[in-house]
Specification:
Blueprint (H helix, E strand, L loop, with lengths): L2 E5 L3 E2 L5 E8 L8 E6 L5 E7 L6 E3 L7 E6 L4 E6 L8 E10 L2 E4 L3 E5 L2
Parallel strand pairs: 2-11
Antiparallel strand pairs: 1-3, 3-8, 4-5, 4-9, 5-6, 7-8, 9-10, 9-11
Length: 117
């Protein structure tokens, strides 16, 4: 059974940092590209970042470049998102996701990030 469990969300002040984690099980983590997406309250999903299976290639949405860093530890089956210089508009539920087959995407339950003073 595929499971993705996010953690690390919290309330943080503008300019602060957080590191999100996503622990995966039920599939061979090291073989798949992983992604972070987020959902702002009342809005749709927004892609944040992705990383290839080996961790050597990463991509970011323009608004996250230079502030967010995606990484993974394949030995620990864990995906990370280091978020720095957080802004109120980064407030969202953050999800990790994986496409195990074309058109078949798995999501975690999400972790809430709130950026507010």
């Amino acid at each position: 059974q595929v499971q993705l469990v996010e953690s690390g969300g919290d309330l943080v002040q503008p300019g602060g940092s957080l590191r999100l984690s996503c622990t995966a099980s039920g599939f061979t983590f090291s073989r798949y590209c992983m992604s972070w997406v987020r959902q702002v309250p009342g809005k749709g999903f927004e892609w944040v970042s992705d990383i290839n299976a080996g961790g050597g290639s990463t991509h970011y949405a323009d608004s996250m470049k230079g502030r967010f860093t995606i990484s993974r530890d394949n030995a620990k089956n864990t995906l990370y998102l280091q978020m720095n210089s957080l802004k109120p508009e980064d407030t969202a539920v953050y999800y990790c996701s994986v496409d195990l087959l074309p058109g078949i995407r798995y999501w975690g339950q999400g972790t809430q990030v709130t950026v507010s003073s």
